[in-house]
């Protein structure tokens, strides 16, 4: 019995480690009143070529580039590729964006990190770009509604993390909140 103890302990530790590193969702929602119209807010969000870490019209810490892809692009659905560089890691990922405009100018924006293996192979083949995300998945849901002379902008983000990153929920939520501050700043310009 004693000689099986190390094996049982090893199996127990492996199972505990696997449970500790299982994927977890981290979510945050905030609203903001922008002085700009919903149409102007949408135009700012879609102005991908003018976003970067510094020296661009719209600032985003650590952002090297966002590229709008031609693949299946329409006025209400498109794919982007994002490249973020930090001291620790370069992150590159594809996102699918869907836009639903209302007659009164309000809109709902949904972006989702691409996870489908076949779609990822297609996007990589068509663009020559790589997909190495920091997180297992992620989505952003935005609702923009005219309010007075401006826009009530509500953003909800879900980040799915596993492994080492899942052990730092405070940092993940802080990062989401920091991202919101930059989004709110940019849509007010």
CATH class division: Alpha Beta
Instruction: Please tally the helical runs, counting DSSP H or I stretches of 4 or more residues.
Output: 4
Average pLDDT across residues? 89
Q: CATH superfamily, called what?
A: START domain
Outline type: globular
Quickly give the structural class: alpha+beta
- Which architecture would the CATH scheme give at its second level? 2-Layer Sandwich
Strand order of the largest sheet: 1-9-8-7-6-5-4
Largest sheet: 7 strands, antiparallel
Measured on Cα atoms, how large is the radius of gyration?
20 Å
What name is given to the CATH topology?
Alpha-D-Glucose-1,6-Bisphosphate, Chain A, domain 4
Fill in the keyword field for this structure.
189 residues; alpha+beta; Alpha-D-Glucose-1,6-Bisphosphate, Chain A, domain 4; 7-stranded antiparallel β-sheet; 29% helix; globular
Describe this structure in words.
There is one protein chain. This protein is α+β, with helices and mostly antiparallel strands and about 190 residues long. It has a single domain (about 25-185), classed as 2-Layer Sandwich (Alpha-D-Glucose-1,6-Bisphosphate, Chain A, domain 4). It has helices at about 5-20, 40-45, 115-125, 170-185; strands at about 25-35, 50, 60, 65-70, 75-85, 90-100, 105-115, 135-145, 150-160. A seven-stranded antiparallel beta sheet has the order 1-9-8-7-6-5-4, with helices on one face. The longest helix has 19 residues, at about 170-185. Residues about 1-20 have low confidence and may be disordered.
